[in-house]
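Retro notes, item 3 of 5
We never archived the inputs for the iron/sulfur cluster complex last cycle. Fixing that now. Sequence and ligand:
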Amino acid sequence: MAISPVTCAIRVLEHIVPDGALLFDSATHCDGRVGRTSTGSLGLKTMRGRIEDFVAFANSTATTLGREAETIPPDPHGAVGTARFRRTLAWHIARRPGGLVALAIQYGHLRTAISGAYASRSRDGIHDLLDVETARATVDALTALQDDLAHGGGISGPAARRAIHAATNVGTFTGQIITARQARDVLGNPHLTVYDNPNTLLMCVYKPDIALCHRAPAQAAPRLDRCMPACANIARTDNHARQLLARAQQLEQRAVHLPTPLAERLRANAHKLRQHATRHHDQRITTPERGAL
Ligand code: SF4
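Structure as it came back at the time:
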């Protein structure tokens, strides 16, 4: 299963390398900086060079377009390198599902596909990184919710009470996730299956048997990039409601400068977002006793 940008990238690579060669064939892609080898794929040293080249390309493009704020600043820890690049990728997969990084979407699908088999598979490399970053994202989301509720914040949606329950169970994991094994403990805990979804401005309190993003059979992880607004696993916080209104305002402002059919579509989307925010304020519940969590 591959999404369109990934398929296109593979097609381009297939045109670059000779028939039957690896997509990152070292003999074809070698740029002369590290010596030419005749077999195998690109080595780590070349990959590190390519990452630095990409940073330089991104920065010059941002400067050319007058978007200096989007340049990548010099890193105090030195060159990014492949290990940190993979970690960054894992961060995006865990915290920006369906976001701007095509590979993140691709690996997000991978995580969903393999996550049902924690007990029986050997998991290493990117898989362990995915577990660690996903577990960190889960604990961060629940810790923020716990704090929010303790200070009078509200939560709404069909899964609101399950989210509150999850927030009461996260305490023992806060600030502790370091190893892949600890991450798997978090991800395997049915009381902590909570995923913040910044793209759809909601929290998924995942219960596989009622999820609308999967067809049967039930999967161990949700497809956040296919989230359905009618799902019974949805919860929304006051913060989500604020962001819904902000996004609605952005859409309405953009609509002013667009031709009628497109503008109407944006205004209709903005209207839906405002409805979600209104419903949140009408239905939100709180945990008034400070010691309740
Ligand atoms: S459809 Fe339901 S289960 Fe799937 S991501 Fe959205 S809220 Fe979660």
